[in-house]
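Ticket #4471: structure export looks truncated?
Reporter: QA, pipeline team
Priority: medium

Steps to reproduce: submit the single chain below to the structure queue and open the exported record.
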Amino acid sequence: MQADENSDAARALLRWYVDAGVDEAVAASPVNHFETATKPAPTAIPRPQAAPVKTAPVTVIAPALLPSADEAASLAER
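Actual output as written to the record:
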């Protein structure tokens, strides 16, 4: 008789959890979220800085001057 009462109580508790919106169990033991936290919040772990990328200096090359249309026509006649 005791086992039937325990399983009925367990079913009722599970039904209450489902009705309350519980959809997953994440720990083997319950967590009291109303208890004040005694340990400080974790701080972010600093990421190591990437080494600067060394690049070669930029050399600007001026474009070659193109002949005008008249110069091109005179060159073509030669």
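Status: closed, not a bug. The export was complete when the record was re-opened. Leaving a note from the reviewer for reference: The two ends are 118 Å apart (CA to CA).
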